[in-house]
From TrEMBL:
The keyword Repeat does not apply. Keywords: DNA-binding, Transcription, Transcription regulation. It comes from Erwinia typographi. This is HTH araC/xylS-type domain-containing protein. It comes from the Bacteria. One of its GO terms (molecular function) is DNA-binding transcription factor activity. Residues 192-290 form the HTH araC/xylS-type domain. Pfam families: HTH_18. The keyword Zinc-finger does not apply. InterPro entries: AraC_XylS_family_regulators, Homeodomain-like_sf, HTH_AraC. PANTHER family: HTH-TYPE TRANSCRIPTIONAL ACTIVATOR RHAS-RELATED, TRANSCRIPTIONAL REGULATORY PROTEIN.
């Protein structure tokens, strides 16, 4: 997610183009035979990453770990120098387009409503890939072979247009998160109580009826209101809490995988592995190994 400095480049299959002094394009199509960990320092940056296929995870300035997912994009902004790392697991096919813009454009992004939180010097937002952005990516990929002045001018236009589409989609995504249904204050308080109850008891055998009863809501009101208020279903939030705790234990404890699964509320290790792989694109064991490598090299 960041521009890693130093060290020998170990990722093959990259088509690199310094389009202008302020725009760099990187097109990646490769299958990794070994796990790849990239880490280092980066200057201030504005980077758009579009992933058609692939897996892995990354972190910026020791913020919450984020995961690469196919058919998605990420906008990474840093106003000052930052530290980050990216991990890409082996035996996956990777198809990405990376667009690096001048950080001088960050104020424009801020004005669009995607401003950096006051307490952070860097942030990353992501969304599902739209058809428009996918078409832009395809046109940029096709334009790499045309290094004429007109071809480069067209690529510059496509790159800036892709950034515009990404920022627009992120702004619209923020608007969509606002609940479409107006919830009375009393119901909002009960939904917050339901969320907190799930968070505190996610490792226990839970049923949604029990959560609704605890919060003083009907089952239908819980399902409808929870999704409207938190943009996730109650049961998916249970799984999310369990996976978050599993992540923590995989990073910080030597417990066997089956013990972690039981501790987090999963029936057995394969149950955890299925949900973990679906959410993060890799097995718990590979995730634990990658985090161990990151800590050793950090």
């Amino acid at each position: 997610m960041v521009k890693h400095k130093g060290g020998k480049e170990t990722l093959t299959g990259i088509d690199h183009l310094q389009l202008t002094p302020h725009i760099v394009l990187k097109h990646v199509q490769t299958t990794l035979q070994q796990d790849l960990l990239l880490q280092g320092e980066s200057a201030a940056h504005l980077t758009l990453v579009i992933m058609m296929e692939g897996a892995g995870h990354f972190s910026l300035n020791q913020q919450t770990l984020q995961h690469y997912r196919p058919q998605s994009f990420w906008l990474s902004c840093a106003q000052t120098a930052c530290h980050g790392y990216d991990f890409f697991p082996r035996h996956h096919f990777y198809h990405l387009l990376i667009l690096e813009f001048s950080p001088d454009l960050i104020p424009l992004v801020d004005e669009c409503g995607l401003s950096v939180p006051a307490q952070e010097d860097a942030w990353i937002l992501s969304a599902v890939l739209t058809d428009e952005i996918a078409r832009q990516m395809q046109q940029i990929q096709q334009g790499f072979s045309d290094r004429s002045a007109l071809g480069r001018l067209r690529l510059e236009s496509l790159a800036l247009g892709t950034l515009w589409l990404a920022v627009r989609e992120l702004c619209q995504q923020r608007k969509r998160v606002v609940p479409a249904v107006r919830l009375p204050n009393r119901e909002r308080r009960r939904l917050i109580a339901a969320r907190d109850y799930i968070r505190q008891n996610a490792a226990q055998p839970l049923c949604i009826e029990e959560v609704a009863q605890h919060a003083g809501l009907s089952l239908m009101a819980l399902k409808r209101g929870f999704r409207a208020m938190f943009a996730i279903t109650p049961w998916n939030y249970v799984i999310e809490c369990r996976l978050r705790e599993a992540q923590r234990l995989l990073e910080s404890s030597p417990l066997p995988l089956n013990d972690i699964a039981l501790h987090c509320g999963f029936a057995h290790a394969s149950h955890l592995s299925r949900f973990f792989h679906r959410q993060f694109g890799q097995t718990p064991g590979r995730y634990r190994n990658s985090r161990g490598q990151a800590m050793l090299r950090g």
